[in-house]
Known about the structure:
The protein has 7 helices and 10 strands.
Amino acid sequence: MLRKELTCHVEDGPVPVLVLVGPLTVRTASQAETAVRKLLLDRGSLLVDVRDLEPVVPSLLAFFSSTLSGVGGWPVARLVLVAPPGPLSSALRRNGVLREVGLAEDRDRALGLLGHRPERVRRRTGLPETVVAVRYARVLVRDACQEWELAGGIPARAELLADELVANAVVHGGGRRTLVLTLDDAGLRVGVRDEGIGVPDPDTATGQGLHVVAELSDGWGTSRHAVGKTVWALLRRG
Length: 238
C-alpha cells in the first residue's frame, strides 16, 4: 500500500545518513530536495538511504544529481545513495542519476564510495546580472579546474571560453544566467545557460565572439530547454 506522506529522518554521525521513506511525487519532491541540500551544505558528505523510497514519478529522482551540482558537486559535496538492486536502482540509472551520484547496497560500502569521483562531475552556479559575471565566472572555472585536477592548457582555455560565453549571455541573453561546468570522459564542458529565446549566430555582428569560442574549443553548440538555452564549449582531455 502506497504511503501518503514522505518522511525524512536524519541519523547523525561522522557522515550523516538521511533516511527517506514514502512516495516521491511532485508534492513531496521539494521536501526531499530541501533536506538533501541542507545536509550537503552543512556537512559536505551525505548518505541517503532510499530503500523505502517510492518513486511515484521516476523522473523526479533526478533531483539527487541536480541538487548535488547546485551545491558545488564533487569533491566539495559528496553524495551516495543506499539501496539494493531492484526497480529503484534501475530507475536511478535510467534517469542518469548514477553518472553523478554513487549507489551502494549497504551503508558500509556507501561510506567507501564517498572518496571516489563519480563518472560525471557537474557544478552549477548562478551568475550576477552585470558584467561582473565575467570575472566571477573566471574564478569559478579556475577553482573547478584545480579541484578536478585538470592540467595542461585546459584551465587557461576554459577561463577564456567562460569569458566569451558569459559576456555573450550578459549582453544578448535574457533572464537568469547560470554557469554550468561538467567533467566526464569526453572532457570539460563549459556552458552558460540563460532564459532568452534567441540562438547565437557566429555569422552576425553580435556573434563574433563565437569565432573565438570555436577557435579555443574542441567543439561547441547550443542546447535548447523548455525555457531558454545553454551555449556550451567542449575541451577534450589528452
